[in-house]
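Run log, item B.
One chain of 213 residues. Sequence copied directly from the ordering sheet:
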Amino acid sequence: MIRVLVADDEPLITAGIRTVLESAGDIEVVAGVANGREAVAAARRHRVDVVLLDIAMPVLDGLAAAGELAGTPVVMLTAFGDEENVRRSLQQGVSGFILKNCAPDELIRAVRAAHAGEAYLSPAVTRQVLGMIPADTGDAERARDADRRLAVLTARELDVLTQVAEGLSNAEVGRKVHMSEATVKTYVSRILTKLDCANRVQAALLLRDARPS
């Protein structure tokens, strides 16, 4: 079982998160706390595998708490997806950043990814991160490496990746390429495996590094 701590100052939110996560079958919410200071103490006391932190909390906010939880995978769960929050979260080395309006299965995926040592960013956050990182179009060696790695993809997989690189969600990609959301999810997973990328951002950056066809 993946042992999870949830930190949010709204009890109803915490209860809802617990219900969603424990419906997965392989996740147990071992504690729920109302501020960052309690989160740091509870994470150590319960020896949790993953901590879900809201950003806006009293006493100690989620970003500050994340800085004190070195060695424990942290997923930021927040209603505020502005660029500064995303930037500060990534600087703290968090494993994931998802918005509170995400689908339940996205929350479960983020926790599993964090537990597996991988990064998870929601599609909306992926779009923001890509906008923060300037494109480097002058590095020929990087472009050649990107071309070589992308060559393993089928035309259909490359089509899906192109949409992912636009920061679209699986549902939005599905509408663009005429697939079901579940099929897109399978394609994205296969693409990440083929490219040896931990998350959508890495795959999108790889595509951006490639030479124009």
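Observations after the first pass:
- Residues 84 and 90 are 10 Å apart (CA to CA).
- The chain has a mean pLDDT of 85.
Flagged for discussion on Thursday.
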